[in-house]
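Show me any protein, fold above all:
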Amino acid sequence: MKGHPATTPPASTFRHHKPKPFAPMDFDPFEGGADPARISEAAHLSAHALVQAGKNNDDPEVRGRLVRLAEDEGLEVIAELWANAPARSLPGALWRLYAIRAATINNPASMASFFASGALQAQAERVVAGAAEPPGAEELCEMTSSILTGAFDGAFDVALERTAAYCRVIALGQAEQADAAELSHTERATLMTSRALALVKTAEDLEASALSWRRGELD
């Protein structure tokens, strides 16, 4: 697959169906097939093929199809292949880019609310993420799409760092809103706190993956 990076399947070959709805930051593992070794091999080969296809092809339509892969194929299809890969691996990192973009597109108002709450505490991360001002729902959707486009444009490490920064801002916003809701909505506050902690871990994994990519060690 790596020997033919530019041979991306045309849009007509994609199986169009309704993507599975995802809640913000809902990254529960998906069950894989019966042979973990073959699934792992397929995950790594396909991830390398997609990244190389975008990097070696200047056609914006090709990159657009790569960005829209989750919509065209359904996020559950990508999850079946990549979600169980190690977080600090190429398929694991690529899965997180797609999943976070999907979470934003599926829940733009909630994500914008979290981002607004966290942005004041994380000015540096806000700048790294690259959200337009004001960072409303539409702007965050555009930002996550631009990040994924950048991942296929030869700047994979930058895409990982931007997504990590975005995760940190969202996590701070979730934690702040959890504190505010603790007395009146205890269960919701507990859920948001849990998701915030998971997002911080995601950010750490993405940052480590970016460093490994620069060293040529992310596989």
Remarks:
- Residues 186-214 form the longest helix (29 residues).
- The chain is about 65% helix and 0% strand.
- The CA atoms of residues 47 and 100 lie 17 Å apart.
